[in-house]
Amino acid sequence: MASFLFKACSSSSSKNDNYDYYTPIRRNPVARRKLFVDEDTVNPDSDDNMNNVGGDNIDVDNVSVHNVDNNVGGNNVGGHNVDDNVGGDNVGGHNVDDNVGGDNFDGENVDDVKDEKNVEKKNHGFKNSNDVVPYVGKIFDTLDDAEAFYRNYGRKEGFKIIIRNTHKRTNTNEPSYRLFICRKGGRVGATPLDFGKGKQVRERDKGGVKNLGFFNQDVRNVIRDIRRRVFNSGDAECGLLLLRELQENSFGNFFYRVDVDDENRVRGLVWVDPRSMNAYKNFGDVVTFDSTYQTNRYCMPFIPITGVNHHYQNLLFGFALVRDETEASYKWVLRTWLEAVDNKPPRTIITDQDIALGNAIAEVMPMPQTKHTYCTWHISSKFPEKLSYLYTNYPEFKTEFNACVYTSLTPTEFEGKWEQLVEKYDLEDHAWLNDMYAIRTQWIGAYTKQHFSAGMTTTSRSESTNSFFDEYVQLSTGLKEFIENSQKALETQYLKEVKADYDSEQLERRLVLHSSLEMHASEIYTKEMFKRFQKELMKSTCYIMNSVKNNGTYMSKLYLVEKATLPENCRRKYRVTVFMYEKIECSCKKFEHSGMICKHIIRYLDKKQKIKIPESLIMGRWTMNGNKIAGPLPYAPPGIGNDGASQPLRYGALCKSFQDLAASGSCSVSRYKYLMGVIDREKRYLKDAFADEERRERTHEAKTQEDYQHDPIFDPPTSKTKRRKKTKRYKSGIETTTSKIKIKPRKCNYCGAIGGEHDARNCPLREEHDRRNF
């Protein structure tokens, strides 16, 4: 049987060394500590002293040594029949079986000589038995025994052992040695036990789950009951406590409102962080509104009110949770959110095509204050389903229809193309197209480009925010945890903006054309917006500009810009109009729609040898000072858990602190008894010493509770909304129709079988026939 020798070495001389890191023994001592495993040769019987492991093996002179089985760490001169000589010097000894630690000179028939002092030294100061405490030279029969020993030892000492690496022999693929280390890998501080796996440990100790007496659901039920008993409230109450604490920590600037039904169950919840309020003052001209995210315990639609900052990054202007997607719910959310942002509606709001939401926006944010546009992606994704007949029977219809919808520059141009399509393909009675034409001003680019929307035409910002929230919430997340994690997500976005600010201010820009306009743009725009300007600048080099004769007025000048790289019959002419005081407009409406000048205007500026972009064409929200328009945040962002403001937060903090204490106290019986005694004494002290203070706190909390809510608020029921998260992928009409077509079953051309799982290449009859012929 192969035996494995584990060696442990410590550079520390402390008697309380926990062996939190191990290292292989070297001739020169090292600072770190590891655990090293080497494998002895099986059945050594050679005269070549094959197994001399440990000590000063290089400088040892083995003279006239015969039948040496194991000589560990010592010098054996002239010895015969030495079975085990560990750590000592045996000079002239005969028939020495075990010599551990001592010096034996001229000894004969020495069976066991053990120096107690040396043994204690090898145990690194421990008085325990060798079966409990590791020591240098300990031998195990198998790797499994060694691993079990050190894992049990680490569990008792309060740290966890892991396998760092394993080396195997090339010829037999058997392990030659294995390195065990502390889970922290040498970092300072012992690792507490993983009590999250306590059930698995108890199963192993009890001999299986059948002897355990409880299951996972029982553990979850106990945890639920403990939380309810300790908090004396439900998830909704804990969430409100957290919101109240956030408001107190921000000196009342944190905003939240709760809507309840007749049974005092949560029906709606809106909360806005002070940083979101300040960001809305800087970038609140465009928001996206989407309620399709329902990842929480109650399946309540989550509405992140999203915008975009000067780095074209997502911004969160507020959060809302509603029970349903009715018009009344949307009205309450919009009115409550506007109350948080000083009743200043955005210039543009982008949503999906929802009738209830559209009616709510029309009442709460009417035109012309706010332009409501629909997500073009949601509408265009319905084209294959609603127009499948036209796509199938008229191949050219798709090209003409896309040209009408996406390439029309003006409303007049769109109207003309639409009338031609309706007349050509007889679409006067097409119900869906008539409905889309009725709302054309809310999704056709020729109309929506007249208003600023930061270049956005879809709700992809909100949908990307939903994907971003997947890192923080899950289906089992309750209200309190959802609110807490939303604050973490907000903090993450804030840090991303800070990093982007640093990059824009400190990092040098890479110029492409080295023109005066490019140099000026690199000084004013953020890094991301400068890249977008460079793309337009590069495209402008392909365009030519021609002036048009005056039409009798001297207030403006007209220029036609076209792409020179296209054939003349395919060129499209864009009208660039120059007014007084350097006001410039282009028929493509890119600047009005996105706030970034287009390639046609850049062509004009370059042709006129302008060295700077006119002030009228620089939108402040895209500059490096875009987030400073409303000034810096006048107060510190609200924190969570400051001074233990609520009982649930205090309870969580204490549980986290006691976890390390419990891990240390469970290492030995003496520690356990001492710690339990301390707990009993402190419990009696807390009960007597703080009785008056607790009464005062309860009185204060009761008064505070009366100021906020007289009746308790209960958890909301599980929502059954119309856009419940689908488990299957959405299929278009064409794909659904195609999937219903019956597929012809497979037929084997060799045996003639129909509907089998084989063909002529792997037919069993063919294989049998070939085998017989062979």
Residue-averaged pLDDT:
75
Estimate the helix proportion, in percent: 25-40%
The gross shape turns out to be: extended
Structural class from helices and strands?
alpha/beta
Number of strands: 23
Major beta sheet, strand line-up: 10-1-2-12-11
What separation lies between the terminal Cα atoms?
49 Å
- Rounded to the nearest angstrom, the radius of gyration is 39 Å
* Largest sheet geometry: 5 strands, antiparallel
Tell me the number of helical segments per DSSP (H or I, 4 or more residues long): 26
Low-confidence stretches: 1-129, 188-196, 723-727
Share of β-strand residues: 5-15%
Descriptive overview:
The protein has 26 helices and 23 strands. It is an alpha/beta fold. The strands form six sheets. It has a five-stranded antiparallel β-sheet with strand order 10-1-2-12-11, covered by helices on one side. Residues 1-129, 188-196 and 723-727 have low confidence and may be disordered.
Question: In brief, what are we looking at here?
Answer:
The chain is of the alpha/beta class and 774 residues long.
Structural topology:
Blueprint: E1 4-8, E2 35-39, E3 70-72, E4 75-77, E5 84-86, E6 89-91, E7 98-100, E8 104-105, E9 112-114, H1 116-122, E10 138-140, H2 143-157, E11 161-168, E12 175-182, H3 198-206, H4 216-231, H5 235-249, E13 255-260, E14 266-272, H6 274-283, E15 286-289, E16 302-308, E17 314-322, H7 327-340, E18 348-351, H8 355-364, E19 371-374, H9 376-380, H10 383-386, H11 388-393, H12 397-406, H13 411-425, H14 431-438, H15 445-448, H16 460-469, H17 479-506, H18 516-524, H19 527-540, E20 543-547, E21 556-563, E22 574-579, E23 584-586, H20 590-594, H21 599-607, H22 647-665, H23 669-689, H24 691-708, H25 733-739, H26 764-773
Parallel strand pairs: 3-5, 4-6, 5-7, 6-8, 7-9, 15-18, 18-19
Antiparallel strand pairs: 1-2, 1-10, 2-12, 11-12, 13-14, 14-17, 16-17, 20-21, 21-22, 22-23
Helix pairs in contact: 5-17, 7-8, 12-13, 18-19, 19-21
